[in-house]
Amino acid sequence: MNFGWPLANDAYGKETALHEVGHTLALPHEHQNPKAGIQWNEDAVRASLGGPPNNWSSETIEYNILRKIPANEIAGSDWDPNSIMHYQFQAELIDSPAPYNQQGIFPEPGSSQKDKDWMQKFYPVLESNDYIELKPFISVPLILSPGEQVNFIVKPKNSRDYKFQTFGEADTVMVLFEEENGDPRYLNGDDDSGSEYNALITHKLLRGRTYILRVRLYFAGLSGETAVMMW
Ligand SMILES: [Zn+2]
Fold it and tell me: What CATH number is attached to the domain comprising 215?
């Protein structure tokens, strides 16, 4: 990650770093939460962010501020004006709701409690008994909610190319790791190479080593009924 300026002595340095790390963990802007219900004074927003120091283009202002994220593309909380993913806004940029059109929106410093709660939901601490052993040619049915993840352990009996695929009506993302000294090391990942939105990974595994496969449902809209198999 490359910040545009030194953060150490910046009044909002810590907030900037937390916010950008939030993006890398797939968090969008909270002021674009479809449940936020902010009615913008669009002319004032364009005048404010189109001028110094941002000098943003009309497209960037639309993308970063005005655009509401479609409800079926995200999972998360109701509007949280204290989220680290929320920008500060002066009152004159907001037509409604009250009281923000009089007092503006100035999130409290740091991550909010909702930020922390949802990050722990999206990225739960994994216990060793969360892992299911995946064996060749035995499919494992899964019913996942958006953002939910299932973890498999793979101990190949032979050194050869293996395929991992999800099946069914679900937009799944699959990532394969090798366990090295107790830590997972990324080997391969796939989103849509299988049929429809299913994921497919082909990778050479070595006998005697231990691998981890994580399967996650990408977003709502599909049933979430899926199965995973390796062969
Ligand atoms: Zn941002």
Answer: 2.60.120.380
